[in-house]
Amino acid sequence: MSQEKPWQERVQEVALAIIDGVRSALDAQNVTMEEYRTGVGYLMKTAQAGELGLLCDVFFNITVVNNQNKLQEGTRSDLEGPYYLPDSPFVDGEIKTMEEFEGEPMVIQGQVTNTEGEPLVGAVLDIWQSTPNGKYSGYHDNIPQEYYRGKVRTNADGSYSVKSTTPVPYEIPNQGPTGTLLKAMGSHTWRPAHIHLKASADGHHNVTMQAYFEGGDYNDNDCCSGKCNEGQNIIPRKYEDGARIMDIDLVLAKAA
Ligand code: MBD
Ligand code: FE
Q1: How far apart are CA 25 and CA 20, in angstroms?
Q2: In whole angstroms, how large is the CA radius of gyration of the chain?
Q3: Are 139 and 173 in contact (CB under 8 A)?
Q4: Is the torsion defined by CA of 251, 58, 31, 22 positive or negative?
Q5: What pTM was estimated for this model as a whole?
Q6: Which of 150, 170, 183, 197 could disulfide-link to 91, CB 3.0 to 4.6 Å?
């Protein structure tokens, strides 16, 4: 396994492969000196705007997620995205939401099992999502970080349930170099509405996934190429007593 190789050897082989890939593209496209300088200037501008991480995540994060999925059974991993905060509070059946945003009531519920289908008791689900106007607490509009985030533990049968409000499609920063490039490419800066879940249980691999909404805008056209077009993470449309019900079951693989 690559992880066991000396660090320097690994850096060398990955760096050489990346350089090779970029050289091949420059060659195949007959990129001119002027175009090359424009591209380098673009990367410098992106770094200055603090968007280098965003730019990389938009185009490349999904490939690393796919690599991870090759190694692991159970629920498929998806993008973590830039807005995870590790210290969310445990909540008692309800994620804190802000009245000023209103939003459609939503219940996130399901069961956490191992790959044999046995319930995992006391597994922790760490959930985070945007407000009903597409902002993340702790990052946008001074929304305190205890809102729209929370941890819950599974019951004796592996089940969990937590109330919240339904998120909407999310727009990544569109004014900076990343948004400019996406639009120049004929793409856009939108992600489909989604809920982030990170599941962990003793003796098992963590899974970081996203749940999407059946029929949601951008499910087939995510600017970050998340796993919203593979079916399994698109949750069927279901309502009970005026609340959107998100049935999200997770399967965790045993750690070696
Ligand atoms: C998000 O909310 C997100 O989930 C990802 C993957 C990228 C940018 C913003
Ligand atoms: Fe997100």
Answers
A1: 9
A2: 20
A3: no
A4: negative
A5: 0.91
A6: 150
User: CA dist 239 to 74, 236, 247, Å?
Assistant: 27, 10, 11
Give yes or no: residues 20 and 127 share one domain: no
For ligand 1, is residue 82 a contact (CB within 6 Å)? Answer: yes
pLDDT digits (tens, 9 = 90+) for 198-230: 999 999 999 999 999 999 999 999 999 998 877
Assess whether the C-beta atom of 65 lies below 6 angstroms from ligand 1. no
In a domain, 1, yes or no: no
Return the H-helix or E-strand segment holding 109: strand 105-114
- pLDDT per position as a tens digit, 64-77: 999 999 998 999 99
The single residue listed with the structure tokens 């445990």 is 90
Close Cβ partners of 21 (under 8 Å, ≥ 6 residues apart): none
**Whose CA is closest to atom 3 on ligand 1?**
81
Residues 50 and 96 reside in one and the same domain: no
